[in-house]
Structure formats: C-alpha cells, structure tokens
Specification:
By secondary structure, this protein is α+β, with helices and mostly antiparallel strands. The protein is 22% helix and 18% strand. The chain is elongated and about 100 Å long. The two termini are 46 Å apart.
Length: 304
C-alpha cells in the first residue's frame, strides 16, 4: 500500500532461520500514478446545438415594474442562460450523487467508488481496503434562452406590442450610438456558461475545468485506504468528495472569485456596436423599451 507520494525508500533485510540479520540494503521505489480515463476526470459539456431539449430551452424574458417599496423602476425577469449537470439538470459538479440536498455524506456519494481488499496473509498489508475504481464523472450542459436567439419566437400580441423577436428588434437598433448588439449579447451569454465570455477560464464550465486540473477527485479518492474497515474508507471518500463538491460549486458560481459576468463587456473588448452610456438599458425587451435604466442593466443577469 502506498499513499499519495511518488518516491519511497525501502529497507530490505535478509534473515536466517534463527532470525539473525545477515545483510541489509536500502532500495528506492518510484510509484507512478495510474493513467487513462478511469483515473483522470475529463469534463464534458453538451451544447444547445447538439440537443433539441437544450436548444429550445427558456421562457420569454420580460421587464416588469418594481414596487416603489423596493426602489421602483423595472427589472428583467427570466433566466437568460444556465450551466448544469446534464443528468440531473441541477447546479452540481460531480456525479453520481444523491438527489436529496440533505443527504448525509455516505448516502450522498454511494456508488462513487468501488473498494478492493488486499489478500496477503504473510504480508504487512493483509486485509487493507483501498479504492479499486472511481466512478466519478463530470458531464455538464449549458443553455441559452431560445427567445433571445436569432430564430427565437416572436412575443404573443397578448403580452407585447412588439412584432419582431428579441434579436431582430435589437438588430434594428444597433447603431453607433446604441451600444447593444443581440449577436454579441447571446454569444456572451453562451461564453459565460462555457469557458468564458471575454476571457478563457472565467465562465462556469471553464472554472470547473480549472478546478479539476488542480484537484482531480479521482486521484484524491484513490489515495484513501484503511487497515481493515470498508465503512471507514467509504466515509473518508465521501467527506473528501463533499468538500470538493461544495468548494467547486462555490468557486464556479456567479459570486465565485474566478467567474466573470457575461455583460457588460470589459472596456477593451471588441464591440460590434460602440458602447452607449448604459449598454443593456438600450436593449429592447417585451413590455418595455429599456431593460433597467436606474442601474444600467446590472440586474438583467439575475438568475444566470
């Protein structure tokens, strides 16, 4: 049995029948980490273009009044994009894990690993239990609200007097003094959910990939073992995975230290339209001609 180190010094003694040491030597051993897909977590990301269920996701976003008690004005309602675990549509990083949010660690990560037992009656590690296989996977997807796309639907006349969809309405408005381009906006949302809108590694999935490269859960759990208790081994694996999952979720959230917003673009970004004084306040949404004038559109990203 070895721990997470890669180099070891081993003392070897030759003992006769009377138990007297006849000679001794020291050997150096180098243990190489296992390679291949079973021992490296490779994240995958499904795109809306690959799956109709992802492509057609989203409800019509709109701008609604805000109560004077809450400051007045208007705010955008409706999620414009999101990134999530593909198998559960939940904002979690790794699978398999229990759906119940209050599941205890052992219940939460049942099935994440398979254990093995050392059988060597004359050796020092007989009956040791270890992680034989890791079943951890990171398979995500992202969506961009279909109503914002170039081929998105037009609003129902019951809800809005606008006769064009979001893209066409704003494309017509894209003038040098406007500062808002629908194509640039939708691409920024997709980038924000993927690797990053304006800088690689700053989108939700991009941050997860960075974290996995630094702390691969499969390699971390492989280092766990116990002298005789499978239950204790499973507990240590579950605690490690819970800590990683919680930390990954925090760091890959919109409030995380590495995730950068989709909009507005940074000052040095290449723009399709020249920036206006408050970029998103010039976007045309249903039930409104401006997105959120009092705060220059900062609340439009609420929920993604």
């Amino acid at each position: 049995m070895v721990d997470s180190r890669g180099a070891y010094a081993v003392n070897v003694e030759a003992v006769d029948a009377q138990g007297t040491t006849q000679c001794s030597r020291q050997a150096s051993l180098t243990v190489n980490a296992r390679t291949g897909p079973e021992w490296k977590t490779i994240p995958t990301l499904a795109r809306p273009e690959d799956d109709p269920n992802l492509y057609l996701w989203g409800e019509m976003p709109e701008v609604v009044p805000v109560s004077p008690l809450l400051g007045g004005g208007t705010m955008a309602v409706g999620v414009v994009g999101k990134e999530f675990d593909r198998s559960s549509w939940r904002p979690v990083t790794m699978q398999p894990q229990a759906i119940a949010t209050d599941a205890l660690p052992l219940q939460r990560w049942a099935g994440a690993t398979e254990e093995g037992t050392v059988s060597d009656p004359s050796g020092p590690n007989d009956a040791f239990v270890f992680v034989k296989k890791a079943n951890i996977r990171v398979e995500h997807a992202y969506v961009v609200n279909f109503w914002l796309r170039q081929d998105g639907a037009k609003p129902d006349p019951v809800f809005s007097p606008q006769t064009a969809n979001f893209w066409d309405q704003n494309q017509q408005m894209c003038e040098p003094t406007n500062g808002f381009s629908p194509g640039e906006y939708v691409a920024a949302i997709a980038g924000h959910e993927n690797d990053g809108a304006w800088e690689p590694g700053t989108g939700h999935f991009g941050v997860i990939a960075r974290l996995l490269a630094e702390r691969d859960p499969r390699k971390i759990v492989e280092a766990e073992f116990d002298s005789n208790s499978t239950d204790f081994l499973r507990l240590m694996v579950a605690l490690n995975l819970s800590r990683l999952e919680n930390d990954f979720n925090d760091r890959a959230s919109d409030d995380g230290p590495w995730v950068k917003p989709a909009w507005p673009p940074p000052p040095d970004a290449s723009r399709l339209c020249n920036p206006g004084p408050c970029d998103l306040t010039r976007a045309s949404f249903w039930r409104s001609t401006t997105a959120y004038a009092p705060e220059c559109g900062t609340r439009l990203g609420l929920g993604y």
